[in-house]
Amino acid sequence: MNAIKAGWYVIYTKPRHEKKVAKYLQDLEIQNYLPTLKTLKIWTGKKKNVILPLFPSYVFVKLESIKNYFESLHVPGVLNYVRMGNQIAGINETIIQKLQTIILKSSSSGLSVSTEHFSPGCILNIQAGPFSGFSCEVIQCRGRNKMLVRIELLHRNILLDLPAEYLSENVISA
To answer: What percent of the chain has pLDDT over 70?
Structure first.
């Protein structure tokens, strides 16, 4: 690897090392982003809010040079970069910005609107809000409907409650 195109990439980490890797990268002055969400966990009847990574074992890194690439590979807890063939997989800046907006909006306002008029299995387009431009699938989860927003590049799914007015009127059948 002689040269690297400046931009966002994804590092794959050891399990439960995301926060440590992000801290090490910050200490090395390598720009990174670890999207996290506050989640309610229940252990033996005790409830506790914990902050967990949105994408377990992944940290987004903005590389500026080949030096940043090699420095980040030597960070404790880093396994490798996500690759597509021989090349490390780049992430579009707009996806990072949308993720940052999603996390900011979800932490500042707990938007939760029932979507009962959509049946499970419907594929919808999101027309407004921080998820604008994404498609989602209505699924049944814990006895109520939620939107499943797919981010194809990472092969991960995010379960979210979205206001019904954010959804496109033209429903695509599954």
So the answer is: 67
CA distances from 10 to 31, 83, 138 (A): 12, 9, 28
- Residue 117 scores a pLDDT above 60: no
Cut 0.70: pTM above it: no
Cα separation of the two ends of the chain: 42
User: Residue 48: what are its φ and ψ, rounded to 5°?
Assistant: -150, 135
Which residues neighbour 155 within 8 Å (Cβ) at sequence distance 6 or greater?
none
**Ordered structural domains, the chain, with CATH:** 7-99 (3.30.70.940), 111-174 (2.30.30.30)
d(CA 45, CA 66): 49
